[in-house]
Sequence to fold (197 residues):
Amino acid sequence: MSSEPAALSAAKQGRGLYRALVLRKQLILAGLALALLLSLCIDLALGPASYSLDQVVLALVSPGSVPLQVRVVLWDIRLPIALMAVVVGAALSIAGAQMQTILNNPLASPFTLGISAAASFGAALALAFGVALIPAAIEYIVPLNAFVVAMLTALVIHLLSLKRGVTVETIVLLGIALVFTFNALLSLVQYLSSEQA
Fold:
């Protein structure tokens, strides 16, 4: 009989601790969202045509109540760039968190797996020799080469990680081997290319 009230008391205490933890996390997320919104407004306010935070907030909430110049500068020029920066930052943070989770290593990065070295090698191929891995988009040859080689490297890592008996340590060692391989190839490209390239 006496163990039942003790168990109920422990369950209530556990629920209280869990609610406090959830509330703390929600407050942290709300604070970070507020900081993001404030930094977005500050980013929109700064520039060659400087505006006050009041004007920026008014232009965002009620675009018809601000002068046309302010509306065009904020909505057509600055806001798309600022929102793209937020989206890219969120994508990079998710990718980093995913890589750190998969490798069970808080220091994991694209440098750990050789993906950034592969991207630099792909870009160097375009810069030094004009090699286009996707000939249809010749005006974007450097970033496309970097992207394609980085994705091919990620695919190789993924396919090798599917083999039986492969551990996280094996993947990290493969990544380090890829880093050295692509750095050696990059040095070879630099050696073979002309001084102008």
The chain is about 80% helix and 0% strand. The chain has a mean pLDDT of 91. The helical segments are 3-45, 53-61, 68-103, 110-113, 115-129, 141-161, 168-192. The CA atoms of residues 124 and 189 lie 7 Å apart.
